Automatic annotation (TrEMBL), chains A, B:
Matches recorded under Gene3D superfamilies: 3.10.20.30, 3.10.20.880, Domain of unknown function (DUF4445)
CDD domains (UniProt xref): fer2
UniProt-listed InterPro entries: 2Fe-2S_ferredoxin-like_sf (IPR036010), 2Fe-2S_ferredoxin-type (IPR001041), ATPase_NBD (IPR043129), Beta-grasp_dom_sf (IPR012675), Corrinoid_activation_enz (IPR052911), Raco-like_middle (IPR041414), Raco-like_middle_sf (IPR042259), RACo_C (IPR027980)
2Fe-2S ferredoxin-type domain mapped to chain residues: 8-97
Superkingdom of the source species: Bacteria
One MF annotation (Gene Ontology) recorded for this entry: iron-sulfur cluster binding
Protein name: Ferredoxin
Pfam families given in the database record: Fer2, RACo_C_ter, RACo_linker, Raco_middle
Length: 487, 487
């Protein structure tokens, strides 16, 4: 594509969003700038062809491609990541290229949570918040009781929590403000205590009783979607939740693509900012909608795969991709959320759930923990199909896990009519003995493509009905005109 | 004193230092700017008269004062803190006003150390450095041993140190650089481990073996003098030492004066910077003289009284002065030295030794620990006379301590011919039955004044010889012309 210094207006439909970009940018770049989510499984490498859009007006600089059929070319389809902008454009994003809005993301998420609810209730976790707020009414000092402010506070915490002095730690900034805070509401204070390994850290000290406003955020940092739940820490009750697409998608849909992008473009910082911005956006939505203040969010816990956690913390992900596949860390110690730019209480902690290895992440360990796989007598199977597919088999005595790339396959990477499990995707297929095909789509609307479970059904039914054999080869002698030789 | 915008040259003798100051500054200000230490017990309040100097040439704007005798006024003595500068000046600092240079400070300090050496050797501490450097040769990862970098490091530390995973903590910045550092010298690294309560913190990870360059600095933050010792952490051998006067003296000689100054002038930050600058100057002298680098100083430990520690950490000292005399903290947790501006390894820790109360500081607890008062069978008395005088009585089963203002009295505050225990001070006095007086001075030079031990001797001898009675009243019937009525 040619570079030039002009700026052009790109008008996206049906979103009706206009964005200005520099000449030489691609249509995919423009879509990202406009915060329009479109399919792009290969991350802009011009391989998957999933980012096809319709050029309603204007001109682009695009190579010829085999990724578009003759019909599509006739209908002015172009590959967004390959199309260099050389004029003002009007772009129509067709159904099959569009990513669904966050409502559906969240619906799916809630549906998942409902499915597990019975199991989760059974699991019956003893609730013990990682970060607690306790209200203390201290005895004011006298000449006969002249204990220093800091030790007075420690003694009160010890009395209430039954912990020892040498397992507590106070930050310098807390120490500095302590005398004032203690005397502000006549020796009634609320202490926020957070766990850091075996140490109990004083995260905050506030005047008066604020113990009823202690919130946490749980985030699922997915390769595709990021979901945040706002919780009351005391009760672990979910107050609200929100989801967005992971804006890192512009660096590659698959996380391996993103590692390559990060290394080749020295873009690790940029990619960290991208996911942190997503999280901050989620948090600010939750905070505004529920009229709480950021200061009252004292902890955030993240369950993501190993690579996503590396991106989130800005840790070098390069060796995850290369043999012998070594992460920087599986057990990431708690850090202050602000250290990576997450806006909660300025001393609030980020707990990153532990991974097992480069390709068995905290999403799996948290899943296995949530269903209490470690308490099952019978060997039990947990399957998590996301961008990666992981399978854990185990019980109270042992667990084994394996993982393989899954998402892009199920979401249509390399499959002409493949798509993600969104509205219009064929998800169930039935083939009769007479080789008649019936199907149903998500949302019961006309089909737009075929999703992962549809593909599995399709292959299973073709095998069952004898269209293919165990090796996957088509049986040529079958009496049906549904099986035709490629023209 | 009049304010004006001219600048003047002040030439100090015998130091032969010239400094330029703005008109309206006092001679005491000018001396501080020139880094000349002169007596000033009241901290520039015009009360003690200890900062008297001789005006050799030029004019100053000074009120009449009772702090100078007629003879002194005739000899052009002026009170430095009261004298506003209105022209270029030549100022002679007389013996009695001069503070000794750091050589004597250090000599005194070493003398003290020698006095205690036998006792200290007896105490036989098991040497266990707070911050250690250990060199680790890690096994490089393979497909069969694909432990993550961070956990590989932890495992190696656990093997070598016998500690558990959940008592260790790694800082975010260490985690970020870890993969590169591990591979830089082919999996040989040096880990710096510091104690924070029950947690072992990874303070630094360096490529290769740097375990033989681990230094610490021990500082005695005195109200008057600040002494720093550079130590090899591995052996606890003292490499070098250095001392300066505490430049906070310009805010008041007595630390109560300094608390008042800090509160009245909102000068806590400024006073913290003052002592931190002193410490940084000491450290940079030690570092240059011994050709080591700041990065290799991984810890600093401070023994000072409670108020000095408050100033050092910038903690609010106000309530130390007022009933019921409550410090912000007696047990100050380790903080990173850089948090208060001390220049050592950027993640090096500052350990502040614990105090007991507002007026029983870490100088006493460290002294009692150094002589192992806690191991004595017989009740033992420890007397520490500094700015405050503290007395600890105790043994292995119990200890009691009391304290009272001492230093200013022994250093001549309120006593016309009083002075600190420097060269020329009368330190021993003997009075015969015939009321003849003999004395000896520090340094065996002609007397310049009388120091604390001289004063004690004087009172004791006067009592013994019957010049005064137990109530301190003079006995008028004594046959000697040495006792005369005030004219």
């Amino acid at each position: 594509m040619s570079e030039n210094s002009n700026t052009y207006k790109i008008h996206f439909l049906p979103n009706d969003k206009i964005v200005e970009v520099n000449g030489g940018s691609t249509v995919l770049d423009a879509a990202h700038n406009a915060n329009i989510y479109i399919n792009s499984i290969c991350g802009g490498d011009g391989i998957c062809g999933k980012c096809k859009v319709i050029l309603s007006s204007g001109t682009v600089d695009a190579p010829t491609t085999k990724l578009l059929s003759k019909e599509e070319v006739d209908k002015d389809y172009i590959i967004a990541c390959e199309a260099g902008i050389t004029s003002d454009l009007q772009i129509l994003i067709p159904h099959e290229t569009r990513l669904e809005g966050k409502k559906i993301l969240l619906d799916q998420n809630e549906q998942h949570a409902m499915t597990w609810k019975a199991t989760l209730d059974q699991a019956n976790f003893k609730h013990d918040a990682l970060v607690k707020k306790i209200c203390l009414k201290l005895e004011p000092p006298t000449v006969d009781d002249n204990v220093a402010d800091h030790e007075r506070l420690y003694q009160a915490i010890m009395m209430k929590q039954g912990v020892e002095l040498n397992v507590m730690q106070t930050g310098y900034s807390i120490l500095k403000k302590l005398p004032t805070v203690l005397r502000q509401e006549d020796w009634t204070v609320t202490v926020t205590l957070g766990h850091r390994g075996k140490i109990l850290e004083i995260i905050d000290v506030q005047p008066g009783d604020t113990s009823n406003t202690n919130y946490g955020v749980a985030i699922d940092v997915g390769t595709t979607t990021v979901v945040a739940c706002l919780l009351e820490m005391e009760t672990s009750k979910i107050v609200d939740s929100e989801a967005v697409y992971n804006t890192q998608m512009k660096f590659g849909e698959d996380y391996i693509q993103r590692i390559i992008y990060a290394i080749q473009n020295e873009a690790l910082d940029e990619m960290q900012r991208s996911i942190v911005t997503d999280i901050n956006n989620l948090i600010s939505t939750l905070v505004e909608r529920n009229s709480i203040i950021l200061e009252d969010i004292t902890a955030i816990a993240s369950a993501g795969n190993t690579t996503m956690h590396h991106f989130l913390l800005g840790l070098d992900p390069e060796r995850i991709r290369k043999e012998p596949y070594i992460p920087t860390a599986n057990f990431i110690p708690p850090i202050r959320a602000i250290q990576i730019g997450i806006d909660i209480n300025s001393r609030g902690l980020l707990y990153t759930l532990p991974s097992v290895s480069a390709y068995v992440g905290a999403d799996i360990t948290s899943g296995a923990t949530a269903i209490r796989l470690d308490k099952k007598e019978m060997p039990t199977l947990l399957i998590d199909i996301g961008t990666n597919g992981e399978v854990v088999l185990g019980n109270e005595e042992w667990m084994v896990c394996c993982s393989a790339s899954a998402g892009p396959a199920f979401e249509g990477s390399g499959i002409k009519h493949g798509m993600r499990a969104a509205k219009g995707a064929i998800e169930i297929i039935h083939i009769t003995k007479e080789f008649e095909v019936s199907y149903s789509t998500i949302g019961d609307i006309p089909p737009r493509g075929i999703c992962g479970s549809g593909l599995l059904d399709c292959i299973a039914e073709m095998l069952r009905s004898g269209i293919i054999d165990r090796s996957g080869n088509f049986q040529k002698g079958i009496k049906t005109d549904r099986l035709r030789k490629k023209r």
